[in-house]
From TrEMBL:
<feature type="domain" description="DDHD">
    <location>
        <begin position="465"/>
        <end position="709"/>
    </location>
</feature>
<feature type="compositionally biased region" description="Gly residues">
    <location>
        <begin position="10"/>
        <end position="21"/>
    </location>
</feature>
<feature type="region of interest" description="Disordered">
    <location>
        <begin position="1"/>
        <end position="27"/>
    </location>
</feature>
<feature type="region of interest" description="Disordered">
    <location>
        <begin position="555"/>
        <end position="583"/>
    </location>
</feature>
<protein>
    <submittedName>
        <fullName>DDHD1 Phospholipase</fullName>
    </submittedName>
</protein>
<dbReference type="Pfam" id="PF02862">
    <property type="entry name" value="DDHD"/>
</dbReference>
<comment type="similarity">
    <text>Belongs to the PA-PLA1 family.</text>
</comment>
<feature type="compositionally biased region" description="Polar residues">
    <location>
        <begin position="557"/>
        <end position="570"/>
    </location>
</feature>
<feature type="region of interest" description="Disordered">
    <location>
        <begin position="635"/>
        <end position="656"/>
    </location>
</feature>
<dbReference type="InterPro" id="IPR058055">
    <property type="entry name" value="PA-PLA1"/>
</dbReference>
<dbReference type="InterPro" id="IPR057826">
    <property type="entry name" value="WWE_C20G8.02"/>
</dbReference>
<dbReference type="InterPro" id="IPR004177">
    <property type="entry name" value="DDHD_dom"/>
</dbReference>
<dbReference type="Pfam" id="PF23463">
    <property type="entry name" value="WWE_2"/>
</dbReference>
<dbReference type="GO" id="GO:0004620">
    <property type="term" value="F:phospholipase activity"/>
</dbReference>
<dbReference type="GO" id="GO:0005737">
    <property type="term" value="C:cytoplasm"/>
</dbReference>
<feature type="compositionally biased region" description="Low complexity">
    <location>
        <begin position="571"/>
        <end position="583"/>
    </location>
</feature>
<dbReference type="GO" id="GO:0046872">
    <property type="term" value="F:metal ion binding"/>
</dbReference>
Length: 723
């Protein structure tokens, strides 16, 4: 972000006398970048200018550029960006702050701003994003005169007229000595020494630096007349004081930190319905991350940048075929489903699946290549990449990283069919034909294998992604269901490699809301008994000194406090206080295996977190019936132990060691659960929870905790070394 500047910026300040001398522009309008020598941001005019300064043209550091998004208030660019925009603006003109000359717009390249995410076209006074498409341009404005209190800029046309009049009338005159932190003196009784009529307003100068703006609307005139008759001065009755130059001088040191980590944010279903949603969601996540960085990671010199990955809108897929076969009744609801849930059907279709995968893969590689081309030092300094995926986006991202393809599953099924055929009785002719078919297939596989080896020796296949993924965050993810339906079953190793090799992705983290109907757990797919272990509770943003996640011990699910037919009141009583944010109480693993079986109700009934579970949970199936079904389904020694055990059996002396055998624990926890709200209804929460991740400060803190893990450790180590 910092290296993508289109303008060389010197430190300046050589030969300048006094703190403000290096910042001032000459009367000819020359642009000085001596601001880089300033130690920190400064507010004007308190000590920012020499005493008894004369009126001159505004320096580049006194002008401030603004941008306005979503038709809200004007927001100031940081000093670093504003100075460079002002330099480009002055390069368009004849110097001296004059208006740009026509025909020279192409002479100045766009200015990269806002951590490199946007560019400013100075000639057209607009800004646009670099990494994603946006139909509406963002207007920018040059601020010279500002409203007292809010420091919002006057509209540029009026500001230019006031500035021109001010210089014509007062240029070269000495300013009053008023640089202390005093309260502004009232202008009651002061005569107007100069006045300027505008289209709907007029401006009065009571002194060189006491300027007021008045509205000439009829209502304002009547109100001003009444107040003056009551004894109020003209200025205090309806005037707005104006300030020349921004409250804070722009400096080159007021710049964003360099980006050491890219976070690609991948959307799931529904993007066709609202194409700009992922951009807004990513912006919300980025804003929350900046708040978290300021509060918890202010000691770090770098930052993580969040980039939206919009892969759906460019796809045509079936064209309008599905729309043409959609009945007109309840059309709005059907269109919503066609624009959202239909993506899941497209992905399970062998005809369109590759198109979805290719779209996301190409967009990820395009964004990474573009970012590195604009930030060449990113790879040189070992920049890292993480991916945050939502909903179906988790499944597509996983398949891209692992290279999974349904053809592999098809070949496995064919091989299984061949094995089953061999076990059946068949005639001599059938055996002969089957033998021929088997030999032919073997020869075909051998030829294909040699062909693959030959291609591999001549042309190396490029990796699917041009970068190594450091962290893969899944939010509201159905990935576990897809893996289970592909035949993934729990193993006997606690390694993440069982579902996602560490060589592909260093860390997999599955984030979900407890009532999200689309989200499923991943840990029980690695080790079966983790269905009895509760997910790790994500810390609240406001938690003071939270326990690090790696130090949080596994805690046992408690079925007595959580049932599939529990009421909202019961759920409220089980939620811990946000002020304490305690870890769930860890039950002794020596409890009877019957109790373990009871606890597994939630794990086995994880489908209850799907829509089906929501619909059928009210049919009154008791936990006892579910427990009997679970116990009946168990086999082997574990099942026999369950039958022999009874409720209330005292803890077994050796079961704790057996249950917590090192090889039977996960190397790292994968499932992380948001804490439920204290007031929301569980069923209402199920409707809203799937889209509640983007605006959560808890999620932002969680992401940055793992993204900055190594940076924070290095910073802490350097602090200890300094001590």
């Amino acid at each position: 972000s910092g290296a993508s500047l289109r303008y060389s910026t010197g430190t300046g300040g050589e030969g300048s006398e006094g703190e403000g001398a290096g910042l001032a522009s000459s009367e000819s309008g020359g642009f000085s970048l001596a601001a880089a020598a300033l130690p920190e941001r400064r507010r004007r005019p308190r000590g920012g200018r020499p005493r008894y300064e004369v009126v001159r043209e505004l320096g580049a550091e006194e002008v401030r550029w603004f941008y306005r998004e979503d038709r809200k208030t004007w927001k100031p660019f940081i000093g670093y960006d504003s100075l460079r925009i002002e330099r480009a603006y002055r390069a368009l003109g004849t110097g001296g702050g004059a208006e740009p000359r026509e025909g020279e717009a192409a002479a100045v390249e766009p200015v990269c701003v806002r951590s490199g995410l946007y560019e400013v076209d100075v000639a057209n006074a607009e800004s646009y994003p670099v990494y994603w498409n946006q139909t509406e341009k963002i207007p920018v404005m040059r601020g010279q005169w500002f409203i007292d209190g809010t420091w919002q800029p006057l509209e540029e046309e009026e500001s230019d007229l006031i500035e021109r009049e001010h210089l014509n009338r007062f240029k070269g005159q000495q300013l009053e000595e008023s640089f202390e932190m005093e309260v502004s003196k009232p202008v009651d009784g002061k005569e107007v020494i100069h006045s300027l009529k505008l289209s709907r307003n007029h401006v009065d100068w009571h002194s060189v630096d006491e300027v007021y703006l008045y509205s000439d609307a009829t209502a304002s005139k009547i109100a001003r007349s009444v107040k003056q008759k009551l004894g109020f001065s003209k200025a205090s009755s309806s005037g707005t004081r104006l300030h020349r130059g921004y409250v804070e001088e722009a400096t080159l040191e007021d710049k964003p930190p360099q980006t050491s980590h890219i976070v690609f944010v991948v959307h799931g279903i529904g993007q066709k319905m609202d194409q700009g949603r992922i951009i807004k969601n990513t912006a919300a996540m980025r804003d929350n991350a900046r708040k978290v960085e300021e509060k918890y990671f202010s000691n770090l010199a770098t930052q993580a940048e969040f980039l939206p990955v919009e892969w759906r809108s460019k796809l045509t897929l079936d064209g309008d075929t599905v729309d043409s076969i959609t009945p007109d009744k309840v059309r709005g609801l059907r269109d919503m489903l066609n624009s959202s849930a239909m993506d899941i059907m497209y992905y399970t279709s062998p005809l369109y699946r590759d198109e979805l995968v290719k779209a996301l893969q190409q967009e990820l590689n395009r964004l990474y290549t573009l970012f590195c081309s604009r930030n060449p030092e990113f790879e040189e300094k070992g920049g890292k990449v993480s991916i945050v995926s939502h909903s179906l986006g988790c499944v597509i991202t996983y398949d891209i990283m692992t290279g999974w393809n349904p053809v592999k599953l098809y070949e496995q099924l064919l091989q299984k069919e061949e094995e089953e055929l061999e076990d059946h009785w068949m005639s001599y002719e059938e055996q002969r034909l089957l033998q021929e078919l088997y030999i032919t297939k073997q020869r075909l596989r051998g030829i294909e294998e040699r062909l693959r080896e030959l291609k591999a020796s001549t042309v190396s296949k490029p990796p699917a992604l041009k970068f190594k993924v450091e962290n893969f965050f899944c939010m509201g993810s159905p990935l576990a269901v897809f893996l289970a339906l592909r035949g993934i079953r729990p193993g006997n190793s606690g390694s993440q490699d069982h579902i996602l090799p560490r060589t592909i992705c260093n860390r997999l983290l599955n984030i979900f809301h407890p009532t999200d109907p689309v989200a499923y757990r991943l840990e029980p797919l690695i080790l079966k008994h983790y269905r009895n272990i509760s997910p790790v509770q994500i810390h609240w943003y406001s938690t003071v000194n939270p326990l690090p996640y790696e130090h949080m011990k596994p805690s046992f699910l408690n079925p007595t406090k959580e049932t599939t037919s529990g009421t909202d009141n019961e759920s409220v009583s089980t939620v811990p206080s946000p002020s304490t944010s305690p870890v769930m109480v860890r039950r002794h693993y020596g409890e009877s295996i019957t109790n373990i079986g009871k606890a597994s109700i939630l794990g086995a009934a994880s489908i209850g977190k799907g829509l089906g579970g929501m619909l059928f949970s009210g049919f009154g199936r008791s936990s006892t019936t579910t427990l009997q079904m679970l116990e009946a389904g168990e086999d082997g020694a574990e099942g026999e132990d369950k039958k022999a055990a009874t409720v209330g059996t005292p803890p077994l002396p050796h079961s704790s060691l057996e249950f917590l055998e090192p090889t039977m624990e996960l190397e790292h926890r994968i499932d992380f659960e948001l804490r439920e709200s204290l007031v929301k209804s569980r069923y209402w929460s199920a409707v809203t929870s799937h889209t509640a991740y983007w605006s959560s400060l808890d999620i932002a803190l969680f992401l940055l905790t793992f993204i900055y893990k190594h940076d924070q450790e290095d910073a802490d180590k350097s602090n200890l070394d300094a001590v």
